[in-house]
Design goal:
heterodimer; A: mainly alpha; 0% strand; B: mainly alpha; MetI-like fold; globular
Chain lengths: 329, 287
C-alpha cells in the first residue's frame, strides 16, 4: 500500500500541470476568439437585421402612418379628394361627448378589473405558497383561463352562465330563494359582468407572477424575523410586501396595458350596451372606422387611447415609486 | 422544505381553510368549462325547457350539435386558417427572435448613439401600443397590395406583434445561458456556428418552446386583427365564434362545440407550458 502512494501523488501532480497548461492555452485562445468574433461585424449585424426590418415595416411604419392619418380626411371607401386637414380631427375628438363616455368606461373597466384581479391574485398566491398537496394540479388549473380565447370565455361566462333566463347562475339563485341577477338593462351591472369575466380569465396571471416572486424570497429572512419574535402580520408587512412590491408594480402595469385594449369581451357580452354605457375605446374606434368608414377619425381615437395609456402608466409608476417602502436589505 | 410565511397558518384549522379556498377557486375555474362540455351534448329543446346540470340524470346527452357542426364548411376553413396563420407567424417570429436575442446578449452593438438596450427597448416597446392604432393603418396599406382577407396579410400583421414577444422572452433566456459554454466549444476548435448549434441551441429549447407557445396562443386567440383584416376567406376561429354569437342568438349547443374546439389547443399548450414556465420564464427574470 505504502509503495503506491508516491506514484499516485506523481500522477496527480502531472494531471494538475496538464490542467494548468490547458487553462493557460485556453485563455490565450479565448482572447483571440473574443477579438475575432467581436470584430465580425457582418455576422453580428445580420443577427439583428431581420428583426429590425420586420419591426420597422410591420409596427413602427404603420404606427407613424396612423399618426399621419389623424391629420387627413382619409375615408374607407371614397379615396378621391384626400387632403390634410390639420388638427380638425383632434378638435372634433375633444368636443365629442361619446368619446368622453367610452374613455370613462374603459378607465372604470381597467381600474376595477385590475384592482380586483390583483387583490384576489395576491391572496391566492400567498395561499399557494404554503406547503400544500396537489400543487401541480392547482398550478395547471391556474394556467387554463389565461390560455383560452377571450371570445370563447366571454361567450361561455358572459352569455351562457350569466344568461338571465337560461343560465345556471340565475337558476341556482332561484333555487336558493335569492333575487335573480338581471343585468342586461343596467349599465352598472353590465360593467360588473364584464369585470367578472375579465377577472375570471386574468386573476391567474397575478397568481403566477406573484407566486414566482414569493418563492424567490429567501426563507432565512422569515427565520430571522421569527427569532426576533415578529408576528405573522409584521412579517407580511415588513418582509413579504416590500420585497414583492416591485414585482406587483410590474404585473399591474402589464395587465393594465392589456386591459386598456379590451374589445372582444365587450363586443361579445354587452355589445357596448345598454346604450353605450359599456362601450370601450377600441370598440368605439372600430365602429367609427369600419362601420362609419371614417378611418381618419378612428385613427385619432386610437391615438388618444395610446396617449391615455402612456399618461396612465407614467402617473401609476410615479405614484408607485413614491409609496414603495424602502427595505434595508 | 416548508416555505410557510406565517406560523399561524400552520394550525390544522387554518389548513382546512386554505384547502377550502383553493377548492372553491378551482370550482370557479372548472364550472364554466364543465358547463360548456355538457351544453355541447344537449339537444336544442333540452336547453329551452329547463336548466339542467348532470348528463344521464337531468338530460339525455346527444351528438346533435357535433353532427351539425361537422357539416359546416366555414368551421373547417376557420380552423385551417387559424392553424396556418398561428404556426407560420409564431415559427418565423421565434426563429428571427432567437437570432436577435442571441445577438443582443452576446455582442455589443453601436448604431449612432443606440446601444443594445436602446435597440431592445425599441423592439419590446412596440407592445405598449394598443393594436387598434396599427390595424387601421394596415387596413389602408394592405388594400392596394391585395393583402386584405388573405392568410398572408394576417400572418404578416401578427408577425410584428409576435416578434416583440419572442425577442422579449428569448433575450432574457439567452442572457441566462453562460457564454463561457460557447467559448469552451470555440476553444476546442468548433466553428462559431457549430458552437451555437450544438451548445446554445439545445440549452435554449425551453425558452424557444415557451416563446413559440406564447406566440401561438396569442395568435390563436387574437380577435381584433382578424375582425378588421379578414371577411370570409381568411377568417379565424375567434371570428367564427364571435359571428355565431351575434348572428344566431342563443344557439348554445353549436357555440359550445365551437368554444370547446377552440380551447383544445389552449389546454394542450397549458400542459406543455406548465413544465417550462416554472423552470425559467418568471423565476429567471425576477431574481
Amino acid at each position: 500500500m505504502d509503495g503506491a502512494r508516491p506514484d499516485h501523488f506523481a500522477v496527480l501532480t502531472q494531471r494538475k500541470m496538464a490542467v494548468i497548461d490547458a487553462v493557460q492555452e485556453a485563455t490565450s485562445r479565448l482572447t483571440s476568439i473574443r477579438g475575432k468574433v467581436g470584430g465580425d461585424r457582418f455576422v453580428r449585424r445580420s443577427l439583428l437585421l431581420p428583426v429590425a426590418v420586420v419591426i420597422a415595416l410591420l409596427t413602427t411604419f404603420p404606427f407613424l402612418f396612423s399618426l399621419v392619418l389623424t391629420f387627413t380626411n382619409m375615408r374607407l371607401l371614397a379615396s378621391s379628394g384626400l387632403r390634410f386637414v390639420g388638427f380638425e380631427n383632434w378638435g372634433r375628438l375633444f368636443a365629442d361627448r361619446n368619446f368622453h363616455i367610452v374613455l370613462r368606461n374603459t378607465l372604470v373597466f381597467v381600474v376595477a378589473g385590475v384592482t380586483l384581479q390583483y387583490v384576489l391574485g395576491l391572496g391566492l398566491a400567498l395561499l399557494l405558497n404554503e406547503d400544500i398537496r396537489g400543487r401541480r394540479f392547482f398550478r395547471i388549473s391556474l394556467f387554463l383561463p389565461m390560455m383560452m380565447s377571450p371570445v370563447a370565455v366571454s361567450y361561455v361566462i358572459g352569455k351562457m352562465l350569466f344568461s338571465e333566463s337560461y343560465g345556471p347562475i340565475n337558476d341556482l339563485l332561484s333555487m336558493l330563494g335569492l333575487p335573480l341577477f338581471t343585468w342586461t338593462l343596467s349599465p352598472a351591472k353590465s360593467m360588473a359582468v364584464l369585470v367578472m369575466v375579465d377577472t375570471w380569465q386574468w386573476t391567474p396571471f397575478f397568481i403566477l407572477v406573484l407566486l414566482a416572486g414569493l418563492q424567490s424570497i429567501s426563507p432565512e429572512l422569515y427565520e430571522a424575523a421569527r427569532v426576533d419574535g415578529a408576528t405573522p402580520r409584521q412579517m407580511f408587512l415588513y418582509i413579504t410586501f416590500p420585497l414583492l412590491m416591485p414585482l406587483c408594480v410590474t404585473a399591474i402595469l402589464i395587465r393594465s396595458l392589456e386591459a386598456f385594449k379590451v374589445l372582444d369581451l365587450v363586443r361579445v357580452v354587452t355589445g357596448g350596451g345598454p346604450g353605450n354605457s359599456t362601450e370601450s375605446v377600441t370598440l368605439f374606434a372600430y365602429d367609427i372606422g369600419l362601420k362609419g368608414g371614417d378611418i381618419a377619425y378612428a385613427s385619432t381615437v386610437a391615438y388618444a387611447l395610446l396617449i391615455t395609456v402612456i399618461i396612465s402608466s407614467v402617473v401609476f409608476l410615479g405614484v408607485a415609486r413614491r409609496i414603495t417602502p424602502r427595505t434595508g436589505e | 422544505m416548508s416555505m410557510g410565511s406565517f406560523h399561524q397558518l400552520r394550525h390544522k384549522s387554518n389548513r382546512v381553510i386554505i384547502y377550502a379556498i383553493l377548492i372553491l377557486w378551482c370550482l370557479i375555474i372548472y364550472f364554466p368549462i364543465y358547463w360548456t362540455v355538457i351544453t355541447a351534448f344537449k339537444l336544442p329543446i333540452a336547453i329551452a325547457i329547463d336548466v339542467t346540470y348532470i348528463p344521464w340524470v337531468d338530460f339525455k346527452p346527444s351528438l346533435h350539435a357535433w353532427r351539425d357542426i361537422s357539416k359546416q364548411h366555414a368551421v373547417v376553413r376557420s380552423f385551417v386558417n387559424s392553424t396556418i396563420v398561428a404556426v407560420t407567424s409564431s415559427a418565423v417570429a421565434v426563429l428571427l427572435g432567437a437570432l436577435a436575442g442571441f445577438g443582443l446578449t452576446r455582442f455589443q452593438y453601436k448604431f449612432g448613439f443606440w446601444r443594445n438596450n436602446d435597440i431592445a427597448f425599441w423592439f419590446v416597446s412596440q407592445r405598449i401600443m394598443p393594436p387598434i392604432v396599427i390595424v387601421l393603418a394596415f387596413l389602408i396599406m394592405f388594400r392596394p397590395l391585395g393583402l386584405i382577407d388573405t392568410r398572408l396579410g394576417l400572418t404578416l400583421a401578427y408577425l410584428g406583434f409576435n416578434l416583440t414577444l419572442a425577442v422579449w422572452i428569448l433575450r432574457d433566456f439567452f442572457a441566462s445561458i453562460p457564454r463561457e459554454l460557447e467559448e469552451s466549444a470555440l476553444i476546442d476548435g468548433a466553428s462559431w456556428f457549430r458552437a451555437f448549434w450544438s451548445i446554445t441551441f439545445p440549452l435554449s429549447t425551453p425558452g424557444l418552446v415557451t416563446a413559440f407557445i406564447l406566440c401561438f396562443i396569442f395568435t390563436w386567440n387574437e380577435f381584433l386583427f382578424a375582425l378588421i383584416l379578414t371577411f370570409q376567406k381568411a377568417g379565424t376561429v375567434p371570428l367564427l365564434l364571435a359571428s355565431q354569437v351575434t348572428n344566431t342568438g342563443v344557439q348554445w349547443w353549436r357555440l359550445s362545440v365551437l368554444a370547446l374546439m377552440s380551447i383544445i389547443p389552449s389546454i394542450i399548450c397549458a400542459l406543455v407550458l406548465e413544465r417550462y414556465i416554472v423552470k425559467g420564464l418568471f423565476t429567471g427574470g425576477i431574481k
